[in-house]
Amino acid sequence: MNQKTLVEIIVNNEVKLSAQFIDNVTTRELISRMPFTIKMDNLYSREMCHRYGHGGLPVDDAKNRGYQIGDISYWPPMGSLVFLYEQNGEVFEQQPIGHIDSDVSFFNGVKSAEVTFQVKD
Q1: Could you give the residue ranges of the DSSP H alpha helices within the chain?
Q2: Domain count, the chain
Q3: What CA–CA distance (Å, rounded) separates 48 from 25?
Q4: CB of 98 within 8 A of CB of 27?
Q5: Per-residue pLDDT reduced to its tens digit, 104-119
């Protein structure tokens, strides 16, 4: 199945982003929890991250791969849900979740944020 789910991401109750989640076991689990709000922290000047902890979400396609700016991924070793907003060419183990269609460059100036996820009508 190659179905995509439209998700609205709201940062600090003010910035609205539009994302497409691909269909896999990780995204199905996240969608089943929506709406939800988590705190995300800026790490490595390239990503916003929330750590669920190892085993926090199920995976079925985690492998080493690169990324594009705007990708949403899950890093299984630390159970990290991440938004990738800067490119450094790194390849790392990840389970793809989806892609933010909006401009994500503003994350560069954000230390931490309350982030709400909800399925778009």
Answers
A1: 25-33
A2: 1
A3: 22
A4: yes
A5: 999 999 999 999 999 9
